[in-house]
Fold these 3 entries.
Entry 1:
Amino acid sequence: MPTVKVRNLKNKEVGDVELLDSVFGVELNESLVHAALVNYQANGRQGTSATKTRGNVSGSGRKLWKQKGTGRARIASLRSPLWKGGGNVHGPQPRDWSYQMPKKMRRGALRSALSERLREGNLIIIDEFSFAGPKTKDFLGAVETLKLSDGKRKKVKTLIVDSLDNANLVLSSRNVEKTKVTNSFGLNIYDILYHEKLLISKSAIEELNDLLDPKREGAKEKGEAPVKEAKPKKAAKADEPKAEEAPKAAKPKKEAVTEEVKAEEAAPKAVKPKKEAAADEVKAEKPAKKEAAPKTDAPAKEKTPKKPKAEKEATDTE
């Protein structure tokens, strides 16, 4: 666990703070940080840019001159995109640019950026931002003692993370350029990357450990999940002692067969469904087909041979 020295507003060391490796000791993931930054900027876009099409610009819709015979190019309307003052083609229209990024990815990008600022030495932990009153002069004096600005050189972009209930801090710093005050819940990836120095109070560090620790996130999710109550199992019935049955005498085979036949005859016949019963009745009503007559062994008639045509003609003439 990395340890960082805690300073007061007079730039004197007051103590040490141990930071979580899972929050402030993460490797830099450039692609994840870039994706989180693009998402933040896209969600901040207004999306109100618009252009006028040929249906929105002012102008007459009358045909200016006839189609043929003038020697000029044909034209249908003044609002054509080809003319000056006409409509715009394929121009931007109002739209919503925002999209949602997974919560674990956003928090992972914050952890990566904070860890990188700590490795650079640009993360300073302050014991407490206490001012007697809301005065910009006192705030500027504290910034100079922390060596964050000098009158001879440009001021450093500074992000202060503390509770917004500290009214003296908020009022003292709101008129100072390149300085922003936020709380641990409002910390975002853009502010961490844009500002060069991060001043975080000791109480805000504890809040960030709670918010960004992946182990505690998983524990909270598990705790919030509804736990199903186990249904009480039915009480097992006491095992009652079963009476031992006396062994039955074995019957001879013939008697056993006759008893089975009697039981089958005594059992009621299964009732057929209505459809099958109706089909059986229809079959009973139809007359049985006539059986084919038996074949007799009578001798078949002999076929007389046909006379030739010439003989037939002779007999006809006679």
Entry 2:
Amino acid sequence: MKAEVEHSVPGKSAGKSQGKSQAPPQHTTAEQRIWREVVSWLWVIAAFIFIEGTLVQARVIPSGSMENTVLIGDHIIVSRIGYDAGIPFTDIHEPLWRNPKRQQIVVFRAPLPDEGNPDFIKRCIGVPGDHIRMVGEKVYVNDKLLNEPYALYTPSIGAPFAQFPPGGDALQDTRLTPEWAAQLPHDEVNGELVVPKGEYFMMGDNRDNSYDSRYWGFVPRNDVIGVPLFIYMSIRAPEEVWDPGHLGERFETYLKIFIDPGEVRWGRLFHTFHR
């Protein structure tokens, strides 16, 4: 009996509701649908610009200049928070309130206009006001030996300079940019390199295989982008795969890891960097 009652009540309610007027269904026009789609994409673009321009960026490491701290094929997330804000794919940006610290890994625009000011990742060795000198594999900052457990030296390659700052004929080394070879003596005081205000001295951890401040000079604070947070992917692949313009080889490399997952350095995933 209870089931019969429960079924009969909706029927009565339905009968009563049929007498009431109902609002006609709303139909959107083609123009309204197009406008909603445009607004949705504008929000996506705005979110991308905000995240990429002020919060984080994804980068891939194309060279071994930071080995063994960062390897070729490491994919990293870079934090821009507090360091730099800008519009992606443009030169419009504004430095913010945070500055690199000594021995911190930093991502920046290299002062190499002839090469298009590429983005580099190196370690900050000198901050404004620091006095730097190097003797063989030893780095002294403000007359104190820098503790560098991360530094890699390759005897087969040999140190680029027996000492730094270089002097005499060493300034004629063709690896130095002409601008730096001319400027370097003016920043040297009593055999030490003095880092100017608002600039930083950067070097790769792979000391004998790194194109860094020793060859092209200081990095202006305005060119600092941010600092790495963690590795989200690491793939074994030849260095040229990660160079600009090799999209086909890079795409093949990404497909390959689905066939051969052993090409992924699983132990490096989510490795974080000290900040």
Entry 3:
Amino acid sequence: MGAAGGPPDSAPPGHGGHAGHAGGAPARGPRGTLQRMDKGRVHRVVAVGSGKGGVGKSSVTVLLASELRRLGRTVGILDADVTGPSIPKLLGVPGPLLDRGEGIEPAVSRAGVPVVSSQFMVEDEQTPVIWRGPLVTRLITQFFGSVQWGTLDYLLIDMPPGTSDVPLTVFQTIPIDGMVFVVTPQELAALIVKKAMNMARDLHVPLLGLVENMSWIACPHCGQRIEPFGPSRVGKVADEYGIPVLARLPIEPWISELGDAGRSDERSSPEITELAAAFERAVTEATKGSMTVL
């Protein structure tokens, strides 16, 4: 890849529909409309998003994937935050992505979670990816359709902030089974996450539930719960949209420490275990009677 994430050698070559991974580039339907790609052997595809940055969405994605892996599920992560990738750092996965002619091979974490990310395509972790929208969206479709994901119970897509090119591409071309939304207690975070939820709903993507991150902290002396960012608003938002609260995650110093060390997958907590169980219930409920929403 060129300096500063320059095209065109930065994007991996496309491959069409090899056995063992999701199928090729999105096809065009009547009047040029995009058709969703085939899942291959990926059973469930779930996006994790928030609409805004800074709420810990990537950390929640990694903690959820790691907990599902501990439960014996096969899980992969597609890092769709092309210009601000976090997953490789959190998991300590250096890459690279390889292509031996049968599709792109993902990097794999120590716990056995396959990962694809734009971070694996730059010279070092401080090199920016400076691409226009069409190149970014092309890369996202290749990350899904041209990667040898193998058989997965879940593929989690770590979404970027906002409601523009990348979310639109993901919703229109990748067979999403639903989306989990991460929010923090502040009213501003609730306002922005509603934009992402409305976008998903308008594009017929099931809303699986809400995770309130950094919801509370336990006093180190008495154990009492303290709400440093104010009272929780997640229940009100969930009721407004008719979806469940999957978990309220506390502020835990070890999450930051392990993330900085690239070892986010090494530890769990009762709240993360609860999140994984609630997530699986929500996915099962959302996919009853159909494989995906068209």
